[in-house]
Amino acid sequence: AQSVAQPEDQVNVAEGNPLTVKCTYSVSGNPYLFWYVQYPNRGLQFLLKYITGDNLVKGSYGFEAEFNKSQTSFHLKKPSALVSDSALYFCAVRDTDTGGFKTIFGAGTRLFVKA
Amino acid sequence: GAVVSQHPSRVICKSGTSVKIECRSLDFQATTMFWYRQFPKQSLMLMATSNEGSKATYEQGVEKDKFLINHASLTLSTLTVTSAHPEDSSFYICSASVSGAEGDTQYFGPGTRLTVL
Predict the structure, then answer these.
(1) What percent of chain A has pLDDT over 70?
(2) A101 touches chain B (CB under 8 A)
(3) Confidence bin at A98 (pLDDT 50/70/90)
(4) FRET partner for B83 with CA separation of 20 to 30 A, picked from A17, A28, A48, B25?
(5) In this complex, do A100 and B108 lie within 8 Å of one another by their Cβ atoms?
(6) Is the pLDDT of residue B102 over 70?
(7) DSSP letter string, A48-70
């Protein structure tokens, strides 16, 4: 069965500093991996995804993530954090082995960027 | 592009009544739509997957008679919470997939907050 873990409930970063939000996954086949961001009382906004190809994926708002198969990780990164990046971030995985669309979401990591 | 809307954004109802939530893909045709439920400070829980013109596929533990899903067209899916009770109070979010391919991105609606008194 597929699963995804976000080991940090909260990440605190000063504005201008680099940020990392961690994500590890477990699937039986090859993974499709996604990052979404959620602002208060809003739905999720797509940031980026890894399907195949280059392990470094660039997405919206200057975010990027690196797929690391050996470590089964897909950490979200940004070189310079903005206060407006403060939000709830979800990592999600879809297992190609099971097929279909079932997407499992991590518990979420709340990012606080301090001015 | 790829905008998904939900209506209403917020609804308060009395226990025992039914509530319908609409999910629309505004600028694309969605082969597949999904309904999620999110509890406070928790992640999204997939309730069901809905394909246009066919019956929805419900996740284990989700009562299909309580949460009625209709996907009548490629741009509209509805979730009806029947005989709502206070424990059904939650944030309901829909999403839509553009092409139906497995690697496709899901685009999410803004969510509907349901409060059952």
Answers:
(1) 97
(2) yes
(3) low
(4) B25
(5) no
(6) no
(7) EEE-SS-SEEE-GGG-EEEEETT
